[in-house]
């Protein structure tokens, strides 16, 4: 008989292998399920998971889609490591975009190199300010940040709706609910002439490297881990748990806010009611896909980007409905979360009754 | 305003409140056991599509309601298997369940778009509800009465029964409950299943009673409102009832005011009030201190055994 | 992109190059037509009508074309990616069917100067980007006429989404037509602030009925307002496609979008090389807007009047917006006998007297 046994140490091998097992299981299940309901399962799975990777034309799309996910997930992962459950990154992402757009609208007839950095700064501050509310309530009143950060997301989205339908509506936009387009000085430059890839994409990867360094090599990173794993020990060791809570929430909010501003000033070029597409929630999944490690998050974000881009390819080639993309993402997550158990547990043959020692 | 209109407004209000009351009540029990399932919207959609598919195929609303409940339980069991069985993170799993529910319901429902059924009608014969005031009492469909009865039942269960006490103990301190000999995971699985059942039923209220049809994302985000309501209600069934009807009242009066031509506050401000109110209630509870600690399950969202 | 140019060049030289089997096979590659949809296709409503247009293309041209589509595309960068994907997949004509696809369409079109794009309901054009839209307001004038005749309370309820010109001109056209029949007619509007939330749309319809409306019309996407009308025993009109199935008694008619004629024409032009950019705004006359079959409940007088309005619009003798016309604030918008220009319509942000919005 097989039985589960707890590992003494989390398995390093399984830490890296389990995401691959999850992806393999998703592809297999997807193939069977969609084959069973009358689609070409093999072609569907190939279109979703393989085509985006082997067609160079799609790589830029993957980078653009992954960049905001990487940035938000980094901030979340730092918090999750400290046992701080900010699940309202979507709201911080929206508030960052709103703050940055505020600067853009104020400077719309100005020119200068400083405008874009000012917008980015406003974006970071906007996101951090929105995360400061759950931080304050958590530190001062012990209110669960899970609930407050989630509730604030809906407030932020409604605030965005109010602005783009009211005071910020483009005066030349035929009454459509959207802000005016950003000027050239307010738009993210591409990494190369004619490329779709804006500077936010390499920035996201750079931030991941920095976060990796901070988390593993600095005292601040150590404090985050200690507070997350053993709050009591952290107190004895002189680590300020409240300070860590503040720091990780502000960092998470700031990163989400920056991601929001970069998305507004990059691919969108304006704010519209369609701006919130759920990156803040998807990033939670990315953080777990990446096992809360910055490098892992870069790959996790790429995997999710592949499913989005591949889902559209599967639609136009195999005529797989768009709902199937969601199913694939959900399956991937389920398998990923399920295979996580392999990191901490292992399957073993049930031990025979121990022989009596002579 | 005549009695007929007032009665009609209240009927609309009750109908708007019922699905979020059901889903919220289920989630309340789940959370009381210490499990945070953010997949309410996904479970509601599973219930909505299963209810409609079965009601359309068999012609029986009752069978549809049963199917919806079972579909909600099935979705909740995916969540339970992962979080309780394999110890995965509840927040991430709940979000995944929502994504799953949206996708699965859309795939299953594709063949039912554009079909119609006879909606769930009032429980009592029309003679009982001839007068507008009587209609307030006798004019609702069975699910409205069921939801009210369930509020009472859950309230009594949690406060007055031994099983309810055990369920709360599991949510307050899973380790102690385990030490006394209670089967923490089994109890949490049961609470999660109950949450799924009521979310499924709440979802089916859309596809079988409110808007008898299937369309993608039919519940349009009500699952998230149900989640907010549970916190707003400080995990108390009575307050949940109040909160759900308050939500229904605000939504209904907003539309009535617009129809009557009264200018009203910006719709966006109105739409954010349930969430702001929830934060305010959370803050007040903590400031009050006395009730705060007792009502929010101390182990909410934490895995057992701790990893 | 280079592969596309090659394929197009080969297509032009198809007959000549048939000596080479490989080229011959590629040259017969069907003409690719792509569609980007904002919603799921379903079996009624706005996106469905565009997909009906796509199916009409397949029926018309058979193996000579190959259509593909991407549904449920979010308006924004995701749309740009979807459009680009269709362009890179070898489609030579791409229809983007929602207003929010405007900037993405223009942006992608710049990268693919050899591919033709058609954007529905927008106002930005380019060498290779044409726009097209339907004069839905002409249909609204016809159903407004029916409502004016059929309403006993003299009140209609309008379940609306957002006050953009498209919706505002629909409300005004509906009301003006009803008012022509019944000078005391009232049209009450509820803004739902959403295109799609069935339960809220239904509740909005109920609120309007509670306040005395016995005609429900809508500019939102779901069939829920019709169901509410059916339940309460009043009449209603469908949106974008025939929605009779949802409300057999209440459904008097519907404004039906029919894109197939335009799509067939544009694909032909793109295939024979005569495609040019432009801006098309077609209505009842061209058949892009139609009325769904009348319900038997419509009285002969109402039927005749609605037919008369349609005939007048088709013949060009009747314009739904004809002066003298004042808005609610009393500002003169059209002088006696003057008709509204297309520019005035496409920027409309005022309501005529008798509309409560």
- How much of the sequence lies in strands of chain B comes to under 5%
Unreliable spans of chain B: none
Helix segment tally of chain A: 14
- What is the number of beta strands of chain B? 0
pLDDT averaged over residues of chain B: 91
Distance between the termini of chain B: 61 Å
Could you estimate the helical fraction of the residues of chain A in percent? 55-70%
Mean pLDDT value of chain A: 89
CATH architecture of the largest domain in chain A: Orthogonal Bundle
Strand order of the largest sheet of chain A: 1-2
Assess the beta-strand content of chain A as a share of residues: under 5%
Helical fraction of chain B equals over 70%
**How many domains comprise the coordinates of chain B?**
1
List the helices and strands of chain B in order.
HHHHHHHHHHHHH
Largest sheet of chain B: none
In summary, what is this structure?
The complex is a heterotrimer of chains A (358), B (307) and C (357). Chain B has 307 residues and is mainly alpha-helical.
Features of the shown structure:
A: 358 residues; mainly alpha; ABC transporter involved in vitamin B12 uptake, BtuC; 2 domains; two-stranded antiparallel sheet; globular; C: 357 residues; alpha/beta; Rossmann fold; 6-stranded parallel sheet; 12 helices
What this model shows, in words?
The complex is a heterotrimer of chains A (358), B (307) and C (357). With 358 residues, chain A is mainly alpha-helical. Chain A contains 14 helices and two strands, in the order E-H-H-H-H-H-H-H-H-H-H-H-H-H-H-E. Chain A folds into two domains: 67 residues, no CATH class; 280 residues, ABC transporter involved in vitamin B12 uptake, BtuC. In chain A, 70% of the residues lie in helices and 3% in strands. In chain A, helix 1 crosses helix 2, helix 4 packs across helix 10 and helix 4 packs across helix 11. Chain A is globular, with a radius of gyration of 22 Å. Chain A starts with a strand and ends in a 9-residue tail after the last strand. The model of chain A has no long low-confidence stretch (mean pLDDT 89). By secondary structure, chain B is mainly α. Chain B has one domain. Chain C is built from twelve helices and 15 strands. In chain C, helix 9 links the parallel strand 8 and strand 9. In chain C, helix 4 packs parallel to helix 5. The N terminus of chain C is likely disordered. Chains in contact: A-B, A-C, B-C.
């Amino acid at each position: 008989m097989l039985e589960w046994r707890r590992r003494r140490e989390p398995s390093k091998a399984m830490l890296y292998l389990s995401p691959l097992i999850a992806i393999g299981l998703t592809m297999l299940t997807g193939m069977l399920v969609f084959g069973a309901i009358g689609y070409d399962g093999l072609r569907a799975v190939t279109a979703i998971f393989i085509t985006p990777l082997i067609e160079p034309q799609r790589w830029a799309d993957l980078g653009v889609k992954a960049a905001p996910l990487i940035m938000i997930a980094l901030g979340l992962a730092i918090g999750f490591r400290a046992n701080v459950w900010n699940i309202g990154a979507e709201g911080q992402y929206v508030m960052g975009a709103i703050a940055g757009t505020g600067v853009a609208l104020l400077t719309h007839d100005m020119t200068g190199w400083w405008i874009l950095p000012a917008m980015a700064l406003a974006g970071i501050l906007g996101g951090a300010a929105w995360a400061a509310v759950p931080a304050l309530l958590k530190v001062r009143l012990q209110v669960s940040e899970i609930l407050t950060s989630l509730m604030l997301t809906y407030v932020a989205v409604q605030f965005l709706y109010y602005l783009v339908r009211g005071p910020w509506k483009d005066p030349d936009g035929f009454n459509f609910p959207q802000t005016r387009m950003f000027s050239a000085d307010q738009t993210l430059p591409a990494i190369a002439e004619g490329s779709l890839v804006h500077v936010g994409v390499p920035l996201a990867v750079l931030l991941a490297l920095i976060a990796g360094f901070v988390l593993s090599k600095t005292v601040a990173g150590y404090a985050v881990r200690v507070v997350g794993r053993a709050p009591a020990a952290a107190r004895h060791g002189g680590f300020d748990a409240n300070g860590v809570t503040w720091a990780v929430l502000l960092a998470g909010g700031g990163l989400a806010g920056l991601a929001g501003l970069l998305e507004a000033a990059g691919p969108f070029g304006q704010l519209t009611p369609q701006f919130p597409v759920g990156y803040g929630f998807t990033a939670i999944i990315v953080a777990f896909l990446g096992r809360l490690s910055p490098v892992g998050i870069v790959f996790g974000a790429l995997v999710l980007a592949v499913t989005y881009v591949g889902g559209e390819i599967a639609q136009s080639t195999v005529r797989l409905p768009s709902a199937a993309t969601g199913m694939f993402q959900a399956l991937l997550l389920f398998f990923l979360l399920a295979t996580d158990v392999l990191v901490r547990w292992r399957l073993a043959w049930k031990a025979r009754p121990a022989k009596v020692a002579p | 305003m005549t009695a007929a209109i007032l009665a009609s407004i209240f009927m609309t209000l009750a109908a708007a409140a019922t699905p979020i009351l059901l889903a919220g009540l289920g989630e309340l029990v789940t959370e009381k056991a210490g499990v945070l399932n953010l997949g309410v919207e996904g479970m509601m959609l599973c219930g909505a599509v299963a209810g409609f598919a079965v009601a359309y195929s068999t012609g029986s609303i009752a069978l549809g309601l049963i199917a919806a409940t079972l579909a909600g339980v099935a979705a909740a069991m995916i969540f339970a298997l992962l979080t309780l069985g394999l110890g995965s993170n509840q927040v991430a799993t709940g979000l995944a369940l929502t994504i799953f529910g949206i996708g699965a319901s859309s795939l299953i429902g594709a063949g039912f778009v554009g079909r119609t059924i006879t909606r769930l009608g009032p429980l009592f014969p029309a003679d009982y509800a001839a007068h507008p005031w009587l209609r307030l009492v006798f004019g609702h469909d069975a699910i409205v009465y069921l939801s009210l009865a369930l509020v009472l039942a859950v309230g009594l269960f949690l406060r007055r029964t031994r099983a309810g006490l055990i369920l709360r103990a599991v949510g307050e301190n899973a380790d102690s409950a385990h030490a006394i000999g209670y089967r923490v995971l089994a109890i949490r699985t049961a609470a999660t299943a109950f949450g799924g059942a009521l979310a499924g039923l709440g979802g089916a209220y859309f596809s079988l009673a409110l808007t008898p049809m299937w369309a993608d994302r039919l519940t349009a985000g009500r699952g998230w409102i149900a989640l907010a309501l549970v916190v707003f209600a400080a995990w108390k069934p009575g307050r949940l009832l109040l909160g759900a009807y308050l939500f229904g009242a605000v939504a209904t009066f907003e539309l009535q005011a617009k129809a009557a031509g009264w200018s009203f506050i910006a719709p966006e401000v109105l739409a954010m009030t349930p969430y702001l109110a929830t934060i305010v209630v959370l803050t007040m509870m903590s400031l009050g201190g006395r009730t705060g600690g007792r009502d929010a399950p101390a182990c909410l969202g934490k895995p057992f055994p701790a990893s | 992109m280079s592969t596309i140019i090659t394929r197009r060049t080969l297509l032009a030289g198809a007959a000549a190059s048939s000596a080479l089997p490989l080229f011959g096979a590629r040259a017969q590659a069907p003409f690719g037509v792509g569609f980007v949809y904002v919603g799921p296709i379903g079996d009624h409503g706005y996106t469905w009508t565009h997909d009906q247009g796509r199916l009409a293309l397949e029926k018309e041209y058979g193996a000579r074309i190959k259509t593909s589509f991407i549904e449920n595309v979010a308006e924004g960068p995701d749309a740009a990616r979807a459009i680009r994907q269709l362009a890179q997949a070898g489609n030579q004509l791409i229809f983007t069917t929602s207003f929010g696809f405007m900037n993405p369409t223009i942006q992608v079109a710049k990268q693919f100067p050899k591919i033709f794009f058609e954007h529905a309901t927008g106002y930005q054009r380019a060498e290779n980007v044409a726009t097209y839209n339907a004069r839905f307001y002409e249909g609204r004038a016809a159903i407004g006429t029916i409502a004016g005749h059929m309403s006993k309370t003299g009140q209609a309820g309008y379940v609306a989404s957002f006050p953009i010109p498209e919706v505002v001109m629909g409300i005004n056209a509906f009301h003006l037509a009803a008012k022509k029949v019944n000078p005391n007619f009232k049209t009450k509007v509820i803004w739902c602030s959403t295109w799609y939330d069935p339960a809220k749309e239904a509740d909005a319809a109920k609120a309007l009925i509670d306040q005395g409306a016995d005609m429900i019309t809508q500019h939102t996407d779901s069939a829920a307002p019709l169901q509410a009308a059916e339940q309460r025993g009043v009449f209603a009109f469908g949106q974008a496609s025939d929605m009779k199935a949802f409300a057999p008694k209440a459904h008097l008619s519907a404004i039906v979008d029919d894109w197939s004629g335009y799509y067939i024409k544009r694909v032909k032009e793109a295939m024979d090389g005569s495609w040019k950019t432009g801006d098309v705004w077609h209505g009842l006359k061209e058949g892009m807007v139609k009325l769904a079959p009348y319900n038997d409940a419509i009285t002969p007088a109402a039927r005749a009047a609605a037919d008369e309005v349609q005939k007048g619009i088709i013949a060009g003798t009747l314009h739904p917006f004809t002066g003298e016309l004042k808005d609610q604030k009393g500002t003169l918008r059209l002088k006696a006998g003057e008709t509204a220009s297309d520019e005035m319509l496409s920027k409309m942000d005022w309501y005529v007297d008798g509309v409560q919005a």
